[in-house]
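Dear Dr. L.,

I hope this message finds you well. Following up on our conversation about the binding site, I have prepared a predicted three-dimensional model of the protein together with zinc ion. For your records, I am including the exact sequence and ligand specification that went into the calculation, followed by the structure tokens. Please feel free to forward this to your student if that is useful.
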Amino acid sequence: MTHLYADPVFEEHQTPPGHPECPARARTVLKALSTCEAISASHPGIRPSEETSSALRLVHDPDYVASIEEAAAAGGRSLDSDTHVSARSYEVACRATATLLGATAAALAAPSESSARQAFVVVRPPGHHARPARGMGFCLFNHVAVAAAVARQGGLERVTVLDFDVHHGNGTQEMFWREGGVQYVSLHGRGYYPGTGAADETGEADGLGRTINVPLPSETAPGEYQAAFASALDRVVSFEPELILVSAGFDAYVEDPVGGLGLAAEDFHWIGCELRAAADAACGGRLVSVLEGGYDLEALGGLAQAYVEGQASSK
Ligand SMILES: [Zn+2]
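The resulting structure of the complex is given below.
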């Protein structure tokens, strides 16, 4: 069972007409999960506080954070052809980070048999491409990286970020490149946006070996994907993380207009099941997932539901 964090406020980050990262994404996931029996409790978005501001600055340049606030206050600005700040984007992106931080804190505080140890956090805009001083790839603030940094600051020695969005989470990788306490594991399409994530990108200094990239060719069959995923999860479990955070993107779905890697709903169910088993083995079931990509509006809700149900079916 999983706790859901979702809120209509995440539809208030606006992108230009026809943009794939649109408000309806959050709406369709929320609709699918509202009747999902694997959800044991639902929570609204969490308002940002002073702590959210300082948390953002653990991974982002303070001037960059201020520039997004100013751009929103001025009515909006485009950071590049894909990535847009609207009038409400700063507030909404901060609330997305605050909500993931709240869900993570609840998972860490929950007793061992509590379903609050598993959370699925449905936010917009997504985060894993956001670099320390630059938003890109639809992302403004890197929510999952902020949550990992806060968990480390709070005393955890080892945190894993597992990223199954079909695009490489270049921002997350960059933020923990030299960090020994955060393992970053990404499975993604080889040669897909943004072009980073080769297998020989493994980190530096204390972080050497903590970055694990598994680039997969576009013709990868679901069975091959599962074998690669299972092998990556073995490395997660042997790292002995105290918390697993998940960049949950659903754009490896076969029909995804922005990605696509041959996966179907049943594969996301399998991913949820395997991740839950890994979290049970490594860290008492502490598994907190945040929505990243996934752009097929017809399928997205069902894919997220399959993932959450997979977590509940483990064991
Ligand atoms: Zn993606």
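In brief: The CA atoms of residues 51 and 224 lie 42 Å apart.

With kind regards,
A. P.
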